[in-house]
Amino acid sequence: MTVPMAEEPGNYGDYYVLTIEPEPDQPAAAAAGEDQAALWLYTLAMLVLLAISLGLAFYICHLTRVLEPGYSVQFTGVQGLDPSQNPVPSPAFNLTVHVSNKQHVRRVCQEENTVIVYYDEGGNSTTRSIGWGKMPAFCVDRWSTTDLDVSLSNQGLFLSQRLREKMEADRQSQQIDISVEIKPTHPEKSSRPCLNLCGGELIGQSFPSASAMPCSTLCATERKYIYYRDHQRRPPSHQSYSPLYF
Fold it and tell me: Between vectors from CA 68 to CA 63 and to CA 73, what angle results, nearest 5°?
């Protein structure tokens, strides 16, 4: 009896025979290592997504919370400070209040404010209020700015000859210390009254100057106030307000 011999793989008509070698089984240790690497990658991806989510949440909270606009003040005109004038006129100030709401996503409205101008004689002398007036209520659209022209004219208020001479000497030497305070006229009606302090340092240039004085904003956190009517100057430090007094 003749036994047929096995033939080499090849082409047999419509069929092509291939010889396939079986793959060896992967070691168990290699499979466990791949599973651990996949777990670490999954954990890292979840931590990255969590960090991104928290960052977006804080950013959205920052954009949507009620924020105060930024203020700066520029004097555009001054009268009544010249010591040579006779009769002595009452001091008058024209200033522009620049309100910036560029970084906020909400429209901001403010009630009527009181604006007070102070002069610091320097040394051990006191700071004096030399003018005050009203700034009308206003609104600023989101991502925008506005300029408010404010006139402070106080009929019946006269500065002494000594004080006007001192201010003129400081102005001539470009070392006059002028500051401005902006505060709500009726803080008891405001849900979050804020005090804006502008300047308070030596201007170092002619007065009125061509540049604006930046303002810092201090806001009350409690509805407990003392309402001053004598226009006394407030402490410049935030730590002095606990709560913020007007």
Answer: 135
